[in-house]
Amino acid sequence: MMNALSVSFAMKAAVAVSTVTFAMCASAVEPIKITLANWADTQAVVYTAKYVLETKLQQPVTLTTADLGIQFQGIARGDVDLMLGAWLPVTHAAYYARFKNDMEDLGVIYSGAKIGWAVPDYVPESEVASIGDLNKPEVKSKLNSTIQGIEPGAGEMVASEKALKEYDLAGYNLIRASEAGMLTAVARAYQSKSWIVATVWSPHWLWQKYKMRYLKDPKGVLGGDEQIHGFSSKQFATKFPRANVFIRHFKLTLADVESIELDGNASNDWSAAAKKFVDSHPEKVQAWLQQ
């Protein structure tokens, strides 16, 4: 039989072991792996979801930056858990058709998005109102036979390649660049008031900074209003049931996304931009966190 000292020591040891075990379990919570593209709209959405998951649900998150095709593939294979920037029904249709049977659609995060080609407002609308007007010799000359694009794997670039053919824009060069490269080209054009046509989308903070307009697309090659979906791996709901419920309730408006984008771009701190938005919209957070 143990004496009092032995009993006390045993109890303290048990408490110590329990504390260590609890701490190890707490620190061993598996993080949710969310894909990220270096596009302002995606960063706004992903960092907002990340902030809520980490601060309201105590769920660790890791971000994985990858090209769009790799993101869809990663979700389908279960290598990553979430992607929160799938544009449907047009922009990412090819990727969706290929991988839809191996993913879970968690619903629409926001609606009213669109892609298109745009020119600065100082380019006369009487000369350039639609994509077809790019075939005018004088317009083609002022644009240096160039359309400023973004990353080659982006759905908008796939649609833009199709637009080149549908509108018979022979001789035009669709420049492949990053989003930052496209924005730099637009900024330089504005400084010199030179003509430019760029592949752009809404929501985006550039609409707050520059006066631009979409070119009409009478053939509908670039699509109309888009819905932005969240997709998860097939295992996500089982592995992260509480987070799964949150993402299904996670809804934003186009204005919300542009507001976060504007702050994120101005500060170059997307985490701070997300925190500012979440902290100032408690009613939205309450709706997101309903069970």
Counting structural domains, the number is: 2
Helix proportion range:
40-55%
Radius of gyration, CA atoms, in whole angstroms: 24 Å
Number of E-type strands: 9
Task: Write out the CATH superfamily name of the largest domain.
Answer: Periplasmic binding protein-like II
CATH class of the largest domain: Alpha Beta
Average pLDDT value? 90
- Total number of helices: 13
The CATH topology of the largest domain turns out to be D-Maltodextrin-Binding Protein, domain 2
Regions with little confidence, pLDDT below 50 for 5+ residues = 1-27
Shape: globular
- Main pleated-sheet profile: 5 strands, antiparallel
Report the β-strand fraction as a percent range: 15-25%
Report the span from N to C terminus: 51 Å
The succession of helices and strands, N to C, reads HEHEHEHEHEHEHEHEEHHHHH
Structural class: alpha/beta
Description of the molecule:
The strands form three sheets. Strands 3, 4, 7, 8 and 9 form a five-stranded antiparallel beta sheet that branches. The radius of gyration is 24 Å and the shape is globular. The relative contact order is 0.18. Helix content is 47%, strand content 19%. The protein has two domains: 31-112 and 225-288, 3-Layer(aba) Sandwich (D-Maltodextrin-Binding Protein, domain 2); 114-214, D-Maltodextrin-Binding Protein, domain 2 (3-Layer(aba) Sandwich). It contains 13 helices and nine strands. By secondary structure, it is an alpha/beta fold. The longest helix has 24 residues, at 4-27.
